[in-house]
Design brief:
The protein is an alpha+beta fold. The chain has one domain (34-179): Nuclear Transport Factor 2, Chain: A (Roll). Helices cover 27% and strands 30% of the residues. Strands 1-5-4-3-2 form a 5-stranded mixed sheet. The termini are far apart.
Amino acid sequence: MISVVFVSGCSLFSTREPDRPITDSGTYIQPDTPEQVIENIQSAISELNTLNYRRSLAEGLLFRPTATAEARETVFVNWSRAQEEQYFSSMVAAASSGNGHNLALNDRTFAIVNDSRYVLDATYVLTLNHSRPDAETRVQGRLQWVVDQGQDGLWSLSEWTDQELGLSASWSDLKAVFIE
């Protein structure tokens, strides 16, 4: 004997509205152009997004600190992508949530070295609201970013040179505080 049960009001096989996607990934544009790498780094800073910051860096990232920071700090001797990620994660952990984090890039010049290498030269003002009394919340200087295209066609930051402007604290100074 076959029993058939009908339940009224139950739509067992009907479609339902899909769940909304998880949007903790922040603002990230697939880096098909060198300019998108710059935008991704700026977004990662303003959103305090460690994953998207990491995604913007080349595996063999080369960082050259300011001359003053290099002479004063030994942390820059073997600086690599791992140290860059560690500094950024430490800074994010100390940062206050909310708005006010910003990387302003001014006086930009973008030079084409070849089809797979671009160089950005700009002055910067980096503002990060954090809880560390031994670090500035606003640093400034001049940077040179070399953005290279990988074998997969995507672009990433491969070389970074930081230069100080006057007596202002630089990004290198901030990195030295947050890596320790």
